[in-house]
Amino acid sequence: MKRMFLFIPLILVVVLGVVLFAGIGKDPNRLDSALVGKSVPAFSLSELGNAEAQLDAAVFEGEVSLLNVWGTWCPACRDEHDDLLRLAEDKGVRIIGLNYKDNRDDALTWLTRLGNPYEVTIYDPRGTLGFDLGVYGAPETYVIDADGIVRYRHVGVVNEKVWKQDLEPIMKRYREGA
Amino acid sequence: MGRRIAMWVLALMLPLQLAADEANVQGFDSLQEEQRYRELISELRCPKCQNQNIADSNAPISRDMRDAVYRMMQDGASDDDIVGALVDRFGEFVRYNPELDRRTVLLWATPAIAVGTGLLVVAGIVIRSRRRGEQSAELTAEERSRVDQLLADEDRDPRS
Questions:
Q1: How near does any CA of chain A get to the CA of B48, in Å?
Q2: Do A31 and B61 touch (CB under 8 A)?
Q3: In chain B, what are the helix, strand and coil shares in percent, each to the nearest 5?
Q4: Is residue A84 part of a domain?
Q5: For the domain that residue A161 is a member of, what is the CATH number?
Q6: Whole-prediction pTM value?
Q7: Domain count, chain A
């Protein structure tokens, strides 16, 4: 019986090791969106390219799309821009842009100069839709299903790896489900 | 001379006045409201800079969240409404003081479990040592005779 007590430190160390090991490689900055499974919040904002045209949540209906939050003030958005262009042009992914806390002229210049991967871009200069979506840092990319329901959020740059590992499988699942 | 000292005192108080102005930019009807605002923003966590509350953080998102708290307070929302609105957008993560539910029950219970386990261990050690103490206090007749014999042997030891 007494011998058994000698194993207590070993057991404690093993348990601690397992717990700590499970945490290795986990990104503590990664937060699941609180909106997963809920509809995109209601909004009424103008289109980036056309101040007269009003957009609302109906823009997401009918097809699974990516919603990409960006701004010209965000260096990481520049990093992912080429990847987004490739997704839109080569893979035919429908990307809706959300121009977040930006300036219309700057944003339009950026799209003319670098190319425009967005089917349509929502202009949100005061960040109201961004706030309702829980955007805490651009770039963020959401998968929205054909019913306008948020299915996934990726915070950070979208690149080939993120697309293959996370976004593509989820988009595929909801495309088939629809 | 007296006037000079008064000037110095006023000059030293100037930064205090500036600090107070900065704290009051939002403007509150009453001290209680301002107190309530301070409490709310100190228990909400910044999603961007994760170890700061939104009162301390300079991140743009924290400023937006502070503005939202202020706006909702002006609209007459209760504390629960305000925290709830932010949790709906940013997740349970933003609460430094999370609700007790199935997911967080372990978080809340861990201190009690740790203290309870510690008390059990201490109690176990105390009971054991006390029991052992009782056993060794009284010698059996056999032990006593052996002790007597050992002591007698020592007295007869030729080397001493």
A1: 6
A2: no
A3: 70, 0, 30
A4: yes
A5: 3.40.30.10
A6: 0.72
A7: 1
